[in-house]
Amino acid sequence: MNKRSLGWATVMILGFAMLQAAHGSPLNICGGPATFGTDLHMSGSNFFTLGLGDVTPRTTLARIITVIEAGTGFGFLALVIGYLPVLYTAFSRREVGTVLLDARAGSPPSAAEHLRRSSQGLHCDRAARLRGPGADLQHAAQCAWGGPPSLAV
User: Fold this and answer.
1) What is the mean pLDDT of residues 115-121?
2) What's the burial of 77, exposed, middle or buried (CB within 10 Å: 0-12/13-18/19+)?
3) How far is CA 121 from CA 26, 35, 41, 109, 147, in A?
4) N or C of the chain: less Cβ packing under 10 Å?
5) How far is residue 151's CA from residue 141's CA, in Å, rounded to a whole number?
6) What does the pLDDT average to over 70-98?
7) pLDDT tens-digit series, residues 29-45
8) CATH class of segment(s) 3-83
9) Burial class (CB within 10 angstroms; exposed 0-12, middle 13-18, buried 19+) of 27
10) Rg of the chain over CA atoms, in angstroms?
């Protein structure tokens, strides 16, 4: 999970714990009365669909809140896991430019070599010149293979 997802999860867990606390913390617990810490423990346990069973809701409203929280947590985890391929694709697209920099600026890359090679072919379209002919092949290989472009060629 990234920082933003962790922040959202924390806010939702706190929110559900505050809902339970506002309802009077109607929880069955061994070893004393329920506190806000108990509400947080139950909220975190249910949000991440762990559900230890050491703290259980007593009233119908508390049970409804618990079921809604478990469903929300399950959906949240599904969204976070579903977002991972999007991040991977964005990272792979960034790698295309990194791989092509070696072709444009030499190895190891230098600004002077990049300018020298760029000035040899005077094209009208600057974006096409910077992208180069290999970018289309890299992109096609990346889409067909699905791996990092450095391994696709």
Assistant:
1) 69
2) middle
3) 75, 73, 65, 19, 31
4) C
5) 9
6) 80
7) 887 788 898 889 889 99
8) mainly alpha
9) buried
10) 27
